[in-house]
Amino acid sequence: QVQLQESGPRLVKPSETLSLTCTVSGASITSGSSYWSWIRQPAGKGLQWIGRIYTSGRTNYNPSLMSRVTISVDTSKNQFSLELRAVTATDTAFYYCARVWRNGNGHFIGFDYWGQGILVTVSS
Amino acid sequence: QSVLTQTPSASGTPGQRVIISCSGSGSDFGNKYVYWYQQVPGTAPRLLIYRNEQRPSGVPDRFSGSKSGTSASLAISGLRSEDEADYHCAAWDSNLSGWVFGGGTKLTVL
């Protein structure tokens, strides 16, 4: 069974950097069929895709956050990470890590596994 | 850039059939696949439908998806109290090389 678990500080000061790690178990982060994403959700609001990383290290980011975001992977620990710089109160949200799987036909199956989410609050 | 629009709320009574819609903007939305997620309050989203109409294993056949032109729909038949949740549509935007989500629809079972 694939499991994802987010970890990191739950309180970040304005202008500082939010750093989260997603630990993957039950699947290899180097699988060529998997893309690993970060998604966030302000309380009571909709989902916002932040970005993704592929096993090769190739990344894609939401244009609205691109200037402040870095997603990286640590294959030795089967983890991937999120850094969001220069945070403000509007970055307060639940942050989820999730996997998109691509089947043998090259078709996206969607975000099939999610972490439980971690609430990060930006406040002084 | 595609924008996905959902009505903020929907409701139904137990046993009823409810349809939740997701409309897309952008000239190429007709070529995109739509995905649906269910999010029970306080939990992470769960994949319900992929590629417009496909159900992952474990998802009851009470849930069905369809797409026509610039609109996609999620139908829930035989509504149950446990279906009360937020429902999100999503699509891959190849121009952005990124995923876009609708604003979500809160379903209330009366």
List keywords for this structure.
heterodimer, A: 124 residues, mainly beta, 7-stranded mixed beta sheet, 4-stranded antiparallel beta sheet, globular, B: 110 residues, 6-stranded mixed beta sheet, 10 strands, 0% helix
Per-chain topology:
The complex is a heterodimer of chains A (124) and B (110).
Chain A lengths: L2 E5 L3 E2 L5 E8 L8 E8 L6 E7 L4 E3 L7 E6 L4 E6 L8 E10 L5 E7 L3 E5 L2
Parallel strand pairs in A: 2-11
Antiparallel strand pairs in A: 1-3, 3-8, 4-5, 4-9, 5-6, 7-8, 9-10, 9-11
Chain B lengths: L3 E2 L3 E4 L5 E7 L9 E6 L6 E4 L13 E6 L2 E6 L8 E9 L4 E4 L3 E5 L1
Parallel strand pairs in B: 2-10
Antiparallel strand pairs in B: 1-3, 3-7, 4-5, 4-8, 6-7, 8-9, 8-10
Please describe what this structure looks like.
The complex is a heterodimer of chains A (124) and B (110). Chain A contains no helices and eleven strands. Chain A is mainly beta. In chain A, the strands form two sheets. In chain A, strands 2, 4, 5, 6, 9, 10 and 11 form a seven-stranded mixed beta sheet that branches. A four-stranded antiparallel beta sheet of chain A has the order 1-3-8-7, with no helix packed on it. The relative contact order of chain A is 0.31. With 110 residues, chain B is an all-beta fold. Chain B has no helices and ten strands. In chain B, strand 8 (85-93) and strand 9 (98-101) form a beta hairpin. The N and C termini of chain B lie far apart (37 Å). The relative contact order of chain B is 0.34. The mean pLDDT of chain B is 93. Chains A and B meet through strand 5 and strand 10 of A and strand 8 and strand 9 of B.
